[in-house]
Amino acid sequence: MGAEPRAPGWVVWMMRRMMPEQDVRVALAELRELHTHWKAEIGEKEADRRFRRQVRQYPFRLVWQALTVTGRTGPWASRTGVTQSVRSLMRAPGLTSAIVLTVGVGIGGCTAIFAVVDALFLQPLPYPDAERLTLIQTESMPHRWPFSVVDYQALSEQQTSFEAVAAYDRSTSTLTTAERAERITVIAPTPGFFEMFGISPVVGRTPVPDEGLPDAEPTVLVTQDFADRHFDSSGSDAVGALGRTVELDGLAYQVIGVLPSYVGPLGRDVEAFTTLRLQPPQRRGPFFLNVFGKLRTDVDHTLAAEELRAINDRLFPLWADSYQNEGSSWGFQDLRDVLRGDAGTGRLLLILMGAVGMLLLVATANAANLLIARVAARRRELAVRRALGATRAHVMGHLMLESALLTMGGVAVGLLLARGGVALLPVVASSYLPRLTEVGLGGSVWVFAVFLAAGCGLLFGLIPAVQGGGGPDLTEGLRSGGRTATGGRGEQRTQRLLVAGQLAIVVPLLAGAGLLLSSFVRLQSLDPGFDAQSLLSMRVSLSPAAYPDTPTRSQFWDQALERIGALPGVEAAAVAGARPPENLSFTNNFNLEDNPTPPGQSEPSSPWVISEPAFFEVMGIPLLKGRGFEPADIEDGPPTVLVDEAWERRYFPGESAVGRRFVEGGDMSSPMTTVVGVVGEVPYQGLGGEGGGAVYRAGARGLGSPYLMIRVAGDPAAVTSLVREELRRMDSTAPITALATGETLLGNSLTRPRHLSLLLTVFALVALLLAVVGLYGITAYSVQRRAGDIAIRLALGGSPSSVLSMVVRQGMGLAAVGVAVGVAVALGVNRILVDLLYEVSPDDPWTLLGVAALMLSVSAVACLIPGRHAVRLDPSSTLREE
């Protein structure tokens, strides 16, 4: 015979606060009797399991019964019960507003972040059979890059694992209309792309295979929005756009179809889709094609990956002269994973969700504390209810109904805030979270908000409801009254634990915000390597039709730079293919002559900047070694480059890079390129990024869409209109975009750390305010509860300083425990920030000390205020009231 089953202690504790002691004993005896019956029918093991389940569920059934059956109608079913609860809450407008607003802020923040999680991770992609769609790439882990034309053609001809493959090239083009010229984003897909993704035109057709041949006539599909704006066609009239001409980069494209305005995340912010006409390749590179495949239903990922590697292995020796990376291969990722963003997206969402979750916990604990204090103040009222026949469960149900009404208010406020947060996210978070324009408050987000609110309501409502429903006996409750009605030791202990928990939660939030702010300050003080003051920049795009080759483009820029340099206030001007600190055109791989890459390994790569001699003068980038560019470097002389000091440190530590040579682009048949000079280090992949160094090649005046960099005397805004007007006089069809001053460029590079640190700081400060208010409340409540004792001490000659010390010591002891626990938690959880920090350790002692000092300081203030009130008590008046 097994031992008689016992109910868990927490179950008995809850039952005793909702039922008379006699009823508790009867209920447990009935459950044991049921256990005996079950044991005879289904065996002892299964009977024990069923008994444990029934016992654990019993308190929650009592709660549900209390909520649904109060008297004969119950507070949910009874309009009177709800009305009484509403009136009760309206008699305490300050407390009601505080709970609704604080809980609403937490629910709103969590709901807004969950909306992003829902859009990126939970909602299906808007493509048929999206689970079979993949992105196929060249891989040499941890690096991935697109395909070349050679790769795509070999894949299309030899693969058998995919139902279809297609590719596109994403770029910007100049759209020329009768009114103006503008730069737009254009996707050039291969024929079959739209069919693979299940995208059908509203009118017209998609490209046929012959339209992807090199000598085919240029064709384009436009979106409905584009047709509405440029062809005055809408809805059923979209057919009027067919056959019209769109001029892109000076080339006329015939419209063969009109697509829906939204074609899914791959076509986001794109309104023109030109048919990609692949030219016969001369070498393995360049790598620019985004290739997609749709897996066959009868092929698993492993077999498809093996086939991709086999095709690449067969292809490699055929083009070995122009591509040396034998260690690279082909692989693929699920399209869903690709569209979620980089690997840091999930971590960022986890950080933000954790931050607002901590804020919600603090708000919930604060609400519970406020309700416990209110229950203590209403002890006489609740005792009267009990004396008039209400059971403990009924009193508990009344308190839970009030908590439910508060929760409903919190949900309303939270959803309003979430709506505003979702609208604001694309503005403040687009630099580090993808696809934010697709985020919305859909059905699953509403369900999440309701369940989140229900959990919070249960947390902050159940504790005071249990305290209020199972307080002291009726005699004590009826005897207590008026101003000094107070709770018992259990309530005080619960309140103190809640306050200490709030403080412990706030510490990791403040520490995380402090680490991000410290990192941001270091980034702000970082030397960018160029002179950002009095610098003006813009991007000017020349039409390929009007300027088809390097000589014509060079002629335009020769004249433009001469005329711009003569403008009032302009000191110097130059063009380049990239713009620091984060506008980089491309990177390039190379093979050093002195330290060649071993066979089968990936060649190193660096940012590659096409520039001109005047660029370094305009930007204030110093020449440290060797010489700058000369006319022979731009003409047909031997290939030469400048490198920055970071590149020199990386590849020739302790030595000079001047005179060193390498083969660039992986093409071993190309002549050696010589380093002729070393310049100062300038970032092109963001401030604080990996300093791998940059390589500069001459010839920027031959570019079709370079950055124009202008050094001015004084305010750059004063010459902006003059420069724009001069360029328009030379060519009115050349769009001018990306206009920015040097300070703006630096500021934009810090957008991500600025917004992250701001968001976390706001969450932390709100949580700190709530926690400090909670500490103030529990200290003031303690002073009120002990007013008689304090008055007696003062009447008997006790010094005010000893009373003040006693009050502050009690509150600060609570704060010290919370801060100590919070610091221990912060040492663990803040390691998730390591990838977001610059020159700051996640366990930085100065940050933790500063946070601890801040917490203890504000806690001391929160304790001093009620302490000063205690000192000012009038012993005679207080004792008379007692």
Sum up the structure in keywords.
6-stranded mixed beta barrel, alpha+beta, 6-stranded mixed barrel, elongated, 4 domains, 882 residues, 27 helices
Can you tell me the overall shape?
Answer: elongated
The DSSP helix count reads 27
Class of secondary structure makeup: alpha+beta
Strand content: 15-25%
Total number of strands: 22
Total individual domains: 4
Largest sheet: 6 strands, mixed, barrel
How is the quaternary structure best described?
Answer: single chain
The parts where pLDDT drops under 50 for at least 5 residues are 69-78, 481-487
Return the average pLDDT rounded to an integer. 83
Helix content: 40-55%
Description:
A hairpin with a 4-residue loop joins strand 3 and strand 4. The protein is built from 27 helices and 22 strands. The chain folds into 4 domains: 9-68, no CATH class; 130-339, no CATH class; 344-524 and 751-881, no CATH class; 542-734, no CATH class. Helix 16 packs across helix 26. The longest helix has 38 residues, at 392-429. With 882 residues, the chain is α+β, with helices and mostly antiparallel strands. Helices cover 52% and strands 15% of the residues.
